[in-house]
Automatic annotation (TrEMBL):
PANTHER family: SUGAR KINASE, XYLULOSE KINASE. Residues 465-487, 611-640, 695-725 are annotated as: Disordered. This is Actin-like ATPase domain-containing protein. Belongs to the FGGY kinase family. InterPro entries: ATPase_NBD. GO terms for biological process: xylulose metabolic process. It comes from the Eukaryota.
Amino acid sequence: MPPGPKTGPALFLGLELATDQLRASIVDESLELVGVECVDFDTELPEFQTQGGIFTTPGDAYTTPVDMWVKALDFLLEKLSRNHDVTRIKSIGGCAQHAVVWWKSTPIPSFPALDPRLPFHSQLPTNTFSLPNTPIAQDTSAHTHALALEALLGGPDLMAARVGTCANASLLAAQLLRVRESWTSDVWSRTGKIQLASQFMASMIVGEWVNMGEAEACATGMWGHAGPGAQGTSGLGRWDEGVLEIVGGNREEGRRIRTWLGDVEIAGGRKAAHISRYLCERYGFESDTIVTPFTSDYLSAYLSLCPSPGDAVLSFGPMDTLLTPAQHYLPTRLYSLFPHPAQDACEKRRYIAMLTSRNADVPRALVRDMYTKSWSAFDRLVAIVPPGGSIGLDDKLFSFWLLQGDSYPLSHVKGIYRFETGIKVNEFRDLRANPRCLLESQVLSFRFRWSRMIATGVLGSNINRSRGNVAQTPGPPTPQGQSSRSNIASSLGLSFDPYDYSTLPTRILVTGAAANFPSVANLAGDVFNAPVFMPSTQVDSAQVVPHRNAPATGFPGRASLGGAYFARWIWGKERSSAVGGSSAGRGLGGFEEEIRRLHGKRWVASGATPLRTNVNAPAGGNGGSGANSGTSTPYGHRSGLGSTIFVEEDEEEVEEMERAESNILNSSVFAGGFADRDLGRDISRMRTLTGSTLDSVTSGGSLGAPSSAFTTPDPNAGAGSPGGGVAGVVVPSTTTLTPVTAMPTSDAEAQIGLAKVAEADVDAFMTYAAIVPEYCRLEGMLCKSLV
């Protein structure tokens, strides 16, 4: 992109180390988007031979080369210094995917000295790291080690009470245990320090070791959070010596791990340090540029959305997550709990509760390949099949695609399970039900787990959310009403009333590629009976690239925006403290409060102009486009990919469907795959003649090593390749996936960059409420190994 102006007001940089790219977003003081840069690992660093930024091997291993991150940072900083005036950048924030960097003991205890005449990668070669290719969040090779650790700590309840989370393969404790037990001893013996990827990135920017934030420490499985003190402030958490001893194998090795980890920064609401002299001399940054604490990518994306109490942030990706504000520290096995990463030590402690599912993009892409030929056909199948896979009330269909080891309560369950009329079957009689039943299972799981989480009181006492225009708000709870709901729940064998939506989220804020499907957005709104909102940046990006986890060219990543917002907040606090001695004296409140204030101030000053969603849009945004479009700003010049692959004439699709009418009985439906042209008419119910679907899939090896196409799916994957769908299928031409579009959105959401993409539907909610008891019963049977 052309260089930006070389003089002007302050700018704020957010960095994001994602799985497939290293991204940067730049905003100004009013949080208007100014610049976007990125380095794509596969295309710009082909020498590392990654796919989607990762290596996959048979089994559950997903790794990535750390040296690739170092070289990508060189490339990104070159782009930033060439295209933007970096002297205007006053503060830098950032985040990274969940991964670990294993440093050799050679550069310890001081951070390696760097020569500004040379790039990073020439001074930090691969042999700097004792583990050159590090596992990432999608890696489940440490799942059995996580379960072993959980058992040694007394089970999921006792482990959660001790370290705030129960077993999952992403725990740093489990990764350490696996390396010690399964890798050669020289990896362990040569290690001098370990850092989470976010710490690593921050250290590269600062030029010295940066401590881990407490929010990330709580995700390691080794940190004991002390909870709030008498006045609501934080007590002193600590590394759990007992857990460290288990991971290290003995007390001495446990102490060694403690030195590897370093100290933990409890307060996230202050600067970490200033930028390194190396970056100032090489790229021209100012020496007083603030560097804020870096955090996890999912927490940074959460910060960018400024959720209110009662909101749920539902992210679809390689791992599906649901995050929501929590008022209390009440750890249980039902969820993970983190201190809010952007709060002062003097604030009343706030937390974020998180529900996760590893079986996310991989099952969705597998179902696409098995039963359809494109994401467009997948979306249309979900749209035309009725809730529960059938019209009848008593013959609903259920499926559980558990391809990877997950967390409690499904930590010991693996396989593909389908049920018709409560009976396990190898395949549904109506193959078209598979895509919808998969998505329903994924979303219903979050709805069920949300209700169980609410019952713990972790989200606070105000569980009867104000539903606004969602539906008529129930009256205040009465003893009779509570008794009635309790009786309903008991009669259904549940701990909650599935027909009571007053405890469900007020709004669903969705992100991730799968949320671009209208059917997915509508399904989320139906299951939770809540309006669904999506970042306007993603709505407009989806008009260019409908299904890709990475944003389209020129559009910012949400996690990098969260880093930029955090940098702006810290800079405002530091400036206020320097001028007035206290940030409180200038009206600066908590993070969300301040970010909403800045958005509101810009909204008023610009005459209600929506936020700019990409660098191709005119500065200051556009007046608006209303429904049936992107959001409020045009997405500018379309890339060649978007123009040639995703745009097809509607007339051609209609003609193709008409030609299919005469020979649909010979189409790919009866071979197990559905094409776009097959979705216009009813196909009689049938059962496949093959055995277990799981057996047929695993015999081909696709479950053993899911490709990176599953984690960052190609929108055209399977559209015309021999591998798309089931063998022997005649593959027709595909049509474009029509992504979600913005509906009329209130000013309160529009000014912070949200667009409504689906409405609540109480009738549809009641349909799913009737399904919940049977879903819970079947899931319970799976957990107890009864099927």
